[in-house]
Amino acid sequence: MSPRKSDSRERMVLSAAELLREYGAGATSIDRVLAHSGAPRGSVYHHFPAGGCS
Predict the structure, then answer these.
(1) Long-range CB pairs of 25-31, under 8 A, 24+ apart, other chains included
(2) C-alpha 45: how far from its chain's center?
(3) Could you list the pLDDT tens digit for every one of the 54 residues in the chain?
(4) Boundaries of every domain in the chain
(5) DSSP characters for 1-50?
(6) Does domain 8-47 have CATH number 2.60.40?
(7) What global pTM score does this model have?
């Protein structure tokens, strides 16, 4: 049996989109996305190791 795949990345992306729509880029921070999504802080570094830049 494989380990359960976390949905934290998807929750963060969906939360970020919702917050950006509602409050705009100036009022949307990583802290706010984490609070809204319920994802642990370590998820940011795990799923976006380059800081979201490609």
Answers:
(1) none
(2) 10
(3) 444 567 999 999 999 999 999 999 999 999 999 999 999 999 999 988 887 665
(4) 8-47
(5) -PPPPP-HHHHHHHHHHHHHHHH-GGG--HHHHHHHHT--THHHHHH-TT
(6) no
(7) 0.79
